[in-house]
């Protein structure tokens, strides 16, 4: 029977020289869910992403992804299992074209060896063509046609963020982690990105875990939200629920000082 959740985190803990970056965080993401993690600056959101994607090893706790415990595995092994991520700052090859950057997301799907690649034989040719076709579908989906042969470094910032999203999609992930997907974007770019994020969940059926500072976006898009503060989970629930949670309001606005 298929599991209801794609990701389960149990009691994650991670500290840096006295700072508790993650202090007992547990949550799960459903197979059709758009789940967001929010919290003030330094609350531990990026640290959680880094543990999930294998950049940091948690000091304790379990991360079960698609039925397997992945805590402490290397980033490439976790990516190969089907977890793709984007980064706060665009991490693309600026001199390569949009198409070439997208192709880099396919390397987990290309299994031919160097000999058949040199000879451009059977399997190599078939896999290359299949990857090219998959990339063209992503170009269409993310409306990147007009930029496809341009070096990424020449493109507007909002489009670069979209290419990064495309590279993650090229991996055909089982779960997509988006780290501040609209950070630094103007309103129009943000609206475009919000539409693509929803389409990924609804049309491509890929569950999404999102870290984002733009509260409006999170409230509009997320099915459920986890709020963290000083590494600790302070609330989990639907956007409308957590918006009125006194602990959440306190975390964002600070303690009200008596006058
Ligand atoms: N590599 C590191 N070395 C030392 N301390 C770190 C490291 N990474 C994170 N921290 C600390 O852990 C805490 C959580 O940081 P983290 O970057 O996860 O927060 P965040 O919620 O993502 O913040 P922001 O919203 O500003 O991106 C902070 O106190 C931070 O200074």
Explain what you see.
There is one protein chain. The chain is an alpha/beta fold and 259 residues long. The protein has two domains: 1-82 and 173-259, P-loop containing nucleotide triphosphate hydrolases (Rossmann fold, 3-Layer(aba) Sandwich); 92-172, no CATH class. Helix content is 38%, strand content 24%. The protein has helices at 45-52, 75-81, 98-104, 114-119, 122-141, 157-170, 187-202, 215-221, 239-243, 246-253; strands at 5-16, 19-30, 34-38, 60-65, 68-69, 83-85, 175-179, 208-211, 224-229, 232-237. Strands 6-7-8-3-9-10 form a six-stranded mixed β-sheet, with helices on both faces. Strands 2-1-4-5 form a four-stranded antiparallel β-sheet, with helices on one face. The chain is globular. The termini are far apart. The mean pLDDT is 89. It binds adenosine-5'-triphosphate (ATP). Adenosine-5'-triphosphate binds next to strand 2 and helix 1.
């Amino acid at each position: 029977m298929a599991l209801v959740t794609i990701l389960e985190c149990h009691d994650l803990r991670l500290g840096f020289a006295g700072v508790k970056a993650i202090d007992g965080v547990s949550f799960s993401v459903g197979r059709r869910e758009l789940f967001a993690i929010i919290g003030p600056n330094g609350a531990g959101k990026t640290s959680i992403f880094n543990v999930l994607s294998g950049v940091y090893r948690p000091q304790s706790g379990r991360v079960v992804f698609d039925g397997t415990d992945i805590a402490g595995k290397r980033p490439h092994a976790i990516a190969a299992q089907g977890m793709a991520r984007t980064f706060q700052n665009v991490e693309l090859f600026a001199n390569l074209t949009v198409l070439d950057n997208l192709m880099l997301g396919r390397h987990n799907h290309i299994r031919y060896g160097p000999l058949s690649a040199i000879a451009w034989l059977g399997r190599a040719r078939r896999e290359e063509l299949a990857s090219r076709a998959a990339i063209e579908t992503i170009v269409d989906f993310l409306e990147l046609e007009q930029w496809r042969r341009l070096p990424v470094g020449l493109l507007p910032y909002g489009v670069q963020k979209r290419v990064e999203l495309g590279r993650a999609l090229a991996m055909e992930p089982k779960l997509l982690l988006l780290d501040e997907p609209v950070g630094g974007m103007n309103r129009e770019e943000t609206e475009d990105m919000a539409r693509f994020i929803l389409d990924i969940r609804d049309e491509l059926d890929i569950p999404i875990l999102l870290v984002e500072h733009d509260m409006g976006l999170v409230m509009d898009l997320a099915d459920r939200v986890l709020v963290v503060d000083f590494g600790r989970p302070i609330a989990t629930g639907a956007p409308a629920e957590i918006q009125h949670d006194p602990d959440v309001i306190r975390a964002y606005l600070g303690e009200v000082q008596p006058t």
